[in-house]
UniProtKB/TrEMBL annotation:
Domain Fumarate reductase/succinate dehydrogenase flavoprotein-like C-terminal: 432-519
Catalytic activity: L-aspartate + O2 = iminosuccinate + H2O2
Keyword match Oxidoreductase: yes
GO molecular function: L-aspartate oxidase activity
Gene: nadB
Active site: R280 (proton acceptor)
Protein name (database record): L-aspartate oxidase
Amino acid sequence: MSTPISDVLIIGGGVAGLTLALEVADHRSVTLVRPAQDDQGASRWAQGGIAAVLSPDDDLDAHINDTLVAGDGLCDIEAVRFTVTHGPAAIQWLIDKGVPFTPEHDPAARYPYHLTREGGHNARRIIHADDATGRAVVDTLVDKVAQHPNITQRNDLTVVGLLQDPQGACRGAYGSDTNQQWHSLTARHTVLATGGASGLYRHTTTPAPSSGEGMMMAAELGARLMNLEFQQFHPTCLFDPEGPAFLISEAVRGEGGHLLNEAGERFMLALDKRAELAPRDVVARAIDAEIQRNSLGHVWLDIRHLGGKSIRHHFPTILAHCACRGIDITQQAIPVVPAAHYSCGGVATNLHGATNVANLYAIGETACTGLHGANRMASNSLLECLVFARSCAQALLADVAQQGQTTSGSEFQPPVQAAAAVLPKAVLRGIRQQMRTTMSQHVSIVRSATGLSTALAHLKSLLNSVEEIQGALTAPEGKRLHQTLQLAILTVLAAQHRHESRGLHYSTDWPSRQPEAVASSLAMKDLTDALATNR
């Protein structure tokens, strides 16, 4: 089944996708594909806030410098400057949309909203809505999108691939509905806002994380993928093996939380002068080392010294959630462990979200703009979503070359049209779990050449297993698992090619940095070549 052609097709309904939809819908027809349940994306679970230069006591160069330091030499300075410079206007756009940011009650403050500080930042520049910023932003934007007459929402489809014309340009996407029927969504411009790849790992900070499917959709059309080896692990995810994932915000440490080892001693003081406010890669490795040395399986994050009143004021969501899990954080330290949180790599784009494939754009976590380099600084993620969604909107609105085209959507059909097969779901779940275990064991916070080789061999075997299941690649769940395994293999290849330790990529075989920072770049040909070996 084919839909009428849209001006803009947006796949993904987090902050990036919602912002883009609202920015172009007054002038272009928009189809927005997003999950029926708002809690599936990572945006809604973002707690800490959004970094931007808002106080008169802060300045753009300071934010730029902090970002460059955290990125460990691999940031694209143009992308950093572009993002930081456009940050204040993006925040004002949210305020104008009605996002209920937490007000500042101190009469001496020089900015009307409360600003907190997080790791890597040398100033208070994180605007937030209590400790549930993502939820506040998503809820506000979802309401605006629902009211806009020029935005058609589709929450009944699972998109699994992109449409391409004979000239190689992207012409939309295809996917399956809940009845296993295929649909094609044709569009003049297609924008991926599908999230990152934290779902490649066993422990994550999001209950239903993306596994990089959007990145592989772009790669299948010829888009370049960049810096896949830089997967950020948030230092402090609630340790509860029996319960769902839950992030303990960086802001908890920003407000004075202490990390304690099994003996109840602070261990960050001896490792970094910034202590608990060191960048995330430093803190995550330190926690991982403590866990390996001891038997608890976690460390402690202690904020009892802040007092109950302050805790209830700053962290009501975390307080309530921990309470429902049997932890009173006003009286007890919080057990925490690092968990996969954010993909610094993704589909390579320019400052307007454009990829190297005509008519295909990527924004948000699925994109690699160069802003984060080898390590994302806290709260720069939602900032990137906003700035690049608004920049992408400007590019799409300025592109009048394709307006008035009457190309029929029926000319671009999905490559698979057969009825989706009924697959052994338990087998697919088992393969996915094996992949996550392999990635967590060998391709996470600390890596080695031996471990990466072991991971590559196992991931190839798992990919073969999927391909041997009859009908797997003509069913949504099989196709998406196949894409996920392909991205996992590309991530291992990127890690193998980087003969150094930099930012989030730490190798025991290459503990030092190379004198020159070079971004990694991979494409489908690299995957094909790797799979041809020993196959």
